[in-house]
Specification:
This protein has 277 residues and is α+β, with helices and mostly antiparallel strands. It is 26% helix and 23% strand.
């Protein structure tokens, strides 16, 4: 999902690892099911498809049209934790073989070696990024989809479709290293940031983070970890809000001064060394 789509503008990411609170295959299926229920509900006019590739070398593939009607087929393919899974939602077309993916997508990919599972969902929001109810729904989705997961990391971004965070890019931290250290150092920060249980404890837990005043909402996940929502809307995540989040999370952010990242002309980071805060 590194290529920016012209039709979607909001992306939700989550990373699971071997410390996930439940079987990762079940959590992958739960991510897809929760997205069907909350991000792409049945009353939305959209056609859909899914593709599941079981191994990194290819091999057996499962293709599904109309993922809602054929959910059980897709769920059975997701629970063994395949190498790659994707679902797309697109506006209905008279030609079943010709469509444009403009409504949204879901993804689940295993990293090389299978140590981590990357989950994603991107959708078209438009002006709704300024709607508190819509934005609350995005956080509700993450809270339900990750409630039993204790994710290693999570984030919600606007107009950022890179798999690495802006902080990783500007600190030139390799994504593989950053994933490996994600329960020791937080990978980044965004409008919504998912903090694993280990780092949440170092920050004093939900009550201490709420007391900083940096967050509109702090949600505890029953499987471990926190979801930190910076402002009531994505549109409201401005420079002041970003600086407040940075300072609240600085004790668990990787040290170093962010620098220029050619592929990120306008990274959403604070150009300060977290170690000096």
């Amino acid at each position: 999902m590194d290529d920016e789509s012209p039709s979607t503008d909001v992306t939700l990411w989550a990373t699971l690892d071997e410390h996930a609170a439940g079987p990762r295959g079940d959590l992958l299926a739960h991510w897809f099911r929760t997205a069907l229920d909350r991000l792409f509900p049945a009353d939305a006019e959209a056609d859909s498809y899914a593709l599941v590739t079981q191994s990194i070398s290819g091999g057996h593939e499962i293709r599904v049209r109309d993922v809602r009607a054929n959910w059980q087929v897709l769920a059975d393919a997701l629970r063994p934790l395949p190498f790659y899974a994707a679902a797309g939602f697109h506006e209905p077309s008279e030609d079943a073989d010709s469509w444009v993916d403009v409504v949204g997508r879901l993804g689940g990919t295993q990293t090389s070696g299978g140590g981590h599972t990357e989950l994603s969902a991107d959708l078209r929001a438009g002006d709704r990024i300024a709607d508190p109810a819509f934005c609350a729904g995005l956080v509700d989705f993450l809270a339900v989809a990750l409630d039993g997961a204790n994710p290693a990391f999570a984030r919600v971004d606007h107009l950022n479709f890179h798999e690495s965070t802006d902080l990783e890019a500007t600190l030139r931290r390799a994504r593989r290293k950053s994933r490996r250290e994600s329960r020791t150092l937080l990978r980044g920060y965004s409008w919504v940031t998912g903090v694993p249980a280990e780092l949440a404890a170092r920050l004093g837990g939900a009550r201490s983070l709420a007391a900083t005043g940096a967050f509109h909402d702090v949600r505890e996940l029953t499987g471990g970890g926190l979801l930190l929502q910076a402002s009531d809307t994505l549109a409201g995540y401005d420079e002041r809000s970003m600086h407040a989040v940075f300072r609240a999370l600085a004790p668990v952010l990787p040290p170093g001064m962010p620098g220029r990242a050619p592929a990120r002309p306008d990274p959403r980071v604070v150009f300060e060394d977290a170690a000096e805060v």
